[in-house]
Amino acid sequence: EVQLLESGGTLVQPGGSLRLSCAASGFTFSSYAMTWVRQAPGQGLEWVSVISGSGDSTYYADSVKGRFTISRDNSKNTLYLQLNSLRAEDTAAYYCARKYSGFDYWGQGTLLTVSS
Amino acid sequence: EIVLTQSPGTLSLSPGERATLSCRASQNINSIYFAWYQQKPGQAPRLLIYGVSRRATGIPDRFSGSGSGTDFTLTISRLEPEDFAVYYCQQYGSSPFTFGPGTKVDFK
């Protein structure tokens, strides 16, 4: 059974940093691209970033480019998102998802609140 | 960036009725990389349809997708009580991957 479990969400002050993690199980992690999607309270889905299975290729939404870094450790079956220079508008639930035919499996999300 | 527009914003229907949801793209999309998701309150999104018309694992056949180019449709043939939710279209072939703003299907 495919499982994705995010962690790391918390309350952070504007300008702060944080790393989110997504632990994967039930599939060959290194064979799949992985992605982060976020959802601000009461709002729609916003794609954040994607990373290839090997980790060699990454892409970002313009809203996070230069501030967020996606990475993965295939030996630990874990996906990461490093978030720097956080802003109030980064407040959201952050979901990791497996990218295959669509985003076919999702975690339950981790909540980040950016506020002073 | 490919912008996706969904209509209507809200669809008020009764169980047993047919739901037709539309998604329009600002430029042509490779159909291989077009999907629909369902999201219920407090839950993660769930993949319904990928490649325009292919149902994801475990999705009942009352859900169907169609379309090409810039115009796509999700049809729910007969609404079940568990189908009342928000539905998002998405393109994932060209970065930045984008979602539509969503269509809420609620009880009439």
Give your account of this protein's structure.
- The complex is a heterodimer of chains A (116) and B (108).
- With 116 residues, chain A is mostly beta strands.
- Chain A has no helices and eleven strands.
- In chain A, strands 2, 4, 5, 6, 9, 10 and 11 form a seven-stranded mixed sheet that branches. In chain A, strands 1-3-8-7 form a four-stranded antiparallel sheet, with no helix packed on it.
- Chain B is an all-beta fold.
- Chain B has no helices and ten strands.
- In chain B, strands 2, 4, 5, 6, 8, 9 and 10 form a seven-stranded mixed sheet that branches. Chain B has a three-stranded antiparallel sheet with strand order 1-3-7, with no helix packed on it.
- In chain B, a hairpin with a 6-residue loop joins strand 4 and strand 5 (46-50).
- Chain B is globular, with a radius of gyration of 13 Å.
- Chain B starts with a strand and ends with a strand.
- The model of chain B has no long low-confidence stretch (mean pLDDT 96).
- Chains A and B meet through strand 5 and strand 10 of A and strand 4, strand 5 and strand 9 of B.
Q: Cα-atom Rg of chain A, whole angstroms?
A: 13 Å
Distance between the termini of chain B: 35 Å
Q: Structural class of the helix and strand makeup of chain B?
A: mainly beta
Order of helices and strands of chain B: EEEEEEEEEE
Helical segment tally of chain A?
A: 0
Mean pLDDT of chain A: 98
What low-confidence regions of chain B span 5 or more consecutive residues with pLDDT below 50? Answer: none
Oligomeric state: heterodimer
List the helices and strands of chain A in order.
EEEEEEEEEEE
* Largest interface in this structure: A-B, 22 and 26 residues
- Whole-Å distance between the termini of chain A? 40 Å
Estimated structural class of chain A: mainly beta
